[in-house]
Amino acid sequence: MLDSQPVDAVQEFNTMQVELVRVDDAFHFEAVGKSGVTQHIDAATDIGGHNAGARPMEMLLMGLAGCTAIDVILILQKQKQVIDDFRLKIDGMREKDATPAPFKKIHITYLLTGQLNADKVKRAIDLSMDKYCSATAQFSSSAEITYSFELA
After folding, report:
1. In this structure, are 1 and 65 located in the same domain?
2. I need a surface site. Which of 3, 9, 38, 113 has the fewest CB within 10 A?
3. What confidence score (pLDDT) does residue 12 get?
């Protein structure tokens, strides 16, 4: 059983809080954090959702995508690399018919265009994956994370 007590704000930790509010009588929720930006979360229609928001597991991958993207862009900017376009795609593989069904394998494909040196792009991604990305660290004990990148 999980401890239902709130997390105490301790000075040696950065605390984060999110509020989740049910929007309808099914599974549509609005979540908001310190940024004040509202995110919609919903379930699949086959269990009574309305497709009015991202699935919770999709949001985990979105968080990973955002975390590593910020790292890579910051590192490349420090290296004076010119990024014209930056995209990434994440494929997350979960066990079929398992409950719970955490991600077991995650592959990230970085797609970049601009005046970019391939070695610097690889180094930036390696630094994100191995040192800076907190989302990667969160997944690393339960999922194998791999990546590839394409320069155009």
Report:
1. no
2. 3
3. 81
